[in-house]
Design a protein that fits this description.
By secondary structure, the protein is α+β, with helices and mostly antiparallel strands. The chain has 2 domains: about 10-200 and about 260-265, no CATH class; about 205-250. Helix content is about 25%, strand content about 30%. It contains 6 helices and 13 strands. It has helices at about 90-100, 125-130, 210-220, 225-235, 235-245, 255-265, and strands at about 15-25, 35-40, 50-55, 60-65, 80-85, 110-120, 130, 140, 150, 160-165, 170-175, 200-205, 255. Strand 2 and strand 3 form a beta hairpin. Helix 3 (about 210-220) packs antiparallel against helix 4 and helix 4 packs antiparallel against helix 5. About 30% of the residues are buried. The model has no long low-confidence stretch (mean pLDDT about 85).
């Protein structure tokens, strides 16, 4: 995806990319905030005809803007901007500076999609094991190099969570929010107050040996090895098995390291 920010690992959430739609008139000459690179043609699936690439002068982050030529029938916004974190995390002031450099005064904009990112030093195996989510779609994809990505939610849903190893020591967590329609870019800062358990939460059994012994008293002694293997693979699967198959409901769950780390990073969100 985008750049590595080692000083933010285990410390802060940041905005990795943001997509904005705008209504109004485009500046005939770019403002000082954006450096033009090249023009192009949008893909066949895009509602826009033309695309241009540039770079934010303040941060060096890449900027892409799509638009329809004057005179074309407009079904939605005539302009769409995408700002990505490559050199530095995307900030509110940077976004507003880019919009001001591309659009004339009096235009209005809406934040349509956001991608929040957190880089942690935790292991993928533990994050996969302790994941609890209300999402119906949970799947994992891999490549030829043996690297895998855990996806929670579908690519077309209003939100999607993705986890993968950015490097050997960094586990990257992406939370993508779509169909937002925020009329004020500064409202993105309220992300630090969002309840992340609406999307996913990470819980672990506080006393795993005690939980296994309780299953033993419920007649599962001959399957304790299998139960232990399930516990090692999926906390959620173990809890479901204990409740449904053995009637053990009051297992003591507590926030795992991933949950505590993400909460800390969310409180220190950069925007």
């Amino acid at each position: 995806m985008n750049g590595n920010f080692t000083d933010l690992v285990d410390e802060r959430f940041f905005v990795d990319s943001i997509r904005v739609r705008a209504w109004g008139e485009r500046r005939p000459v770019l403002g000082d905030g954006v450096e033009f690179i090249r023009n192009g043609i949008a893909g066949p699936a895009s509602p826009y005809a033309l695309v241009a690439m540039g770079r934010c002068r303040l941060s060096g982050n890449p900027v892409q803007w799509k638009f329809l030529p004057v005179g074309w029938q407009v079904r939605s916004a005539r302009y769409e901007f995408t700002l990505r974190a490559e050199k530095l995390p995307v900030t509110c002031e940077e976004l507003l500076n880019v919009i001001d450099s591309l659009m004339l005064p009096g235009s209005r904009h809406e934040v349509e999609a956001l991608e929040f990112t957190a880089d942690t030093s935790l292991e993928m195996q533990h994050c996969r094991r302790d994941l609890f989510t209300p999402a119906r779609t949970v799947y994992e994809v891999g490549d030829r190099n043996g690297k895998s990505m855990l996806c929670v939610g579908s690519p077309r849903s209003a939100w999607q969570l993705r986890l993968y190893n950015k490097t050997d020591s960094i586990l990257r967590c992406h939370l993508t929010l779509r169909k937002l329609r925020l009329s004020n870019a500064r409202d993105v800062g309220y992300f630090c107050t969002v309840d992340l358990s609406r999307f996913a939460t990470w819980l672990e059994i506080a006393a795993p040996m005690t939980a296994l012994l309780r299953l033993n008293t419920q007649g599962a002694g001959w399957r304790l090895q299998t139960c232990a293997e399930i516990l090692d693979r999926s906390t959620r699967g173990f809890v479901r098995m204990a409740r449904v198959d053995h009637g053990v409901r009051n297992l003591w769950l507590r926030p795992s390291a991933m949950e505590s780390r993400l909460r800390h990073m969310q409180r220190n969100f950069i925007w």
